[in-house]
Design a protein that fits this description.
Blueprint: H1 4-31, H2 37-66, H3 72-97
Helix pairs in contact: 1-2, 2-3
């Protein structure tokens, strides 16, 4: 059986890599070279969604575990704001499909 500290360390590494990949993909879609009509049309919304998803994954899966006694109102405000940004960007992407 693994120790709780080892489990926390492994979870932290996995979720940090996952959130970093999402954020990097989002930044690449937002500021990368635009080479196709489809990405020109939908790249902004996809990039924003991936960037918000990466931030939300990191805050919910890593920061909440490392700082369990953080002020819950501030945590809810930060995570809620990023989640609203994620919903808006997904909505903008879906709206752009029609």
């Amino acid at each position: 059986m693994a120790s709780p500290a080892a489990v926390l360390l492994v979870r932290t590494m996995l979720f940090t890599v996952w959130s970093a990949l999402l954020a990097i993909a989002g930044l690449a879609a937002l500021g990368g070279p635009v080479t196709g009509a489809w990405i020109r049309t939908h790249g902004f919304w996809l990039g924003l969604a991936a960037l918000c998803a990466g931030q939300f994954v990191f805050m919910a899966a890593v920061a909440d575990r490392w700082f369990p006694y953080a002020d819950r109102r501030m945590v809810a405000l930060a995570e809620g704001g990023v989640f609203v940004g994620l919903l808006i960007s997904v909505g903008g992407f879906v709206k752009g499909l029609w």
